[in-house]
């Protein structure tokens, strides 16, 4: 007999079916009478639930939404001579070289917040060099061949710039949960119960149901269970404390 392909990911239709069952909207058919696929409020509530679930999982440290990309050819700072007070930045509108704007590179469209940055000279295959995140403002420093440091503010990556073109490797948390059709795949393993309960909560809350809070509690419990399983998996990797004076080293194997 033929092999049926399966996946650990659920679909929007699966989450909607479970939500309809939870709110007792399957008396006539699985398609529902109120919380139907085509009701004008279904997908707004669905995406609101998705936004909540994603942010809760991110707050628990899950790497489901972590991506990496390359910001290629970050041009040298255009300020001459080098000025310790000058800065460059990369945003969703392009790259500012200290004097003018360029259409590329841009930050990814689904970026929520950057986690780590590395750099190397454009056109080379040298090892990536870690860049250090700075909080509460970039210090004044004269530009060199390396960028070295960065700061995240006003939804842009600010840097002192460099005197040569650099490529930047960006690791970031992304926003991936936004749905338009019932066949869309929910790219989180085992998330359907949390997703359906959160949707049921928002649906019943909009109608003033006194039992709405019950589904909120159930959704949060499902999220906690997923986060706990993820935390236990991370505990399999031995970690060491960050070395003093070397902020790039955060995890490693004990010798």
How is the topology of this model organized?
Blueprint: E1 10-11, H1 12-22, H2 42-59, E2 66-74, E3 88-91, E4 94-96, E5 101-102, E6 111-121, E7 129-133, E8 149-153, E9 156-159, E10 166-174, E11 185-186, H3 192-205, H4 212-234
Helix pairs in contact: 1-3, 2-3, 3-4
Structural description of this entry:
- With 255 residues, the chain is α+β, with helices and mostly antiparallel strands.
- The protein folds into two domains: 12-62 and 180-233, no CATH class; 64-174, no CATH class.
- Helix content is 26%, strand content 22%.
- The chain is built from four helices and eleven strands.
- The strands form two sheets. It has a nine-stranded mixed beta sheet with strand order 2-10-6-7-8-9-3-4-5, with no helix packed on it. Strands 1-11 form a two-stranded antiparallel sheet.
- Helix 1 packs across helix 3 (192-205) and helix 2 (42-59) packs across helix 3.
Key phrases:
single chain; 255 residues; alpha+beta; 2 domains; 9-stranded mixed beta sheet; two-stranded antiparallel sheet; elongated; disordered N terminus
Q: Kindly estimate the percentage of residues that lie in beta strands according to DSSP.
A: 15-25%
Unreliable stretches: 1-5, 248-255
Mean pLDDT over the full residue set: 88
Which strand order do you get reading across the main beta sheet? 2-10-6-7-8-9-3-4-5
Count of helix runs: 4
Distance separating the two termini: 51 Å
**Tell me, what's the shape?**
elongated
Largest sheet: 9 strands, mixed
Number of DSSP-assigned strands: 11
| Percent range of helical residues | 25-40%
Radius of gyration: 23 Å
Spell out the helices and strands N to C.
EHHEEEEEEEEEEHH
Briefly note the structural class of the backbone. Answer: alpha+beta
Number of domains: 2
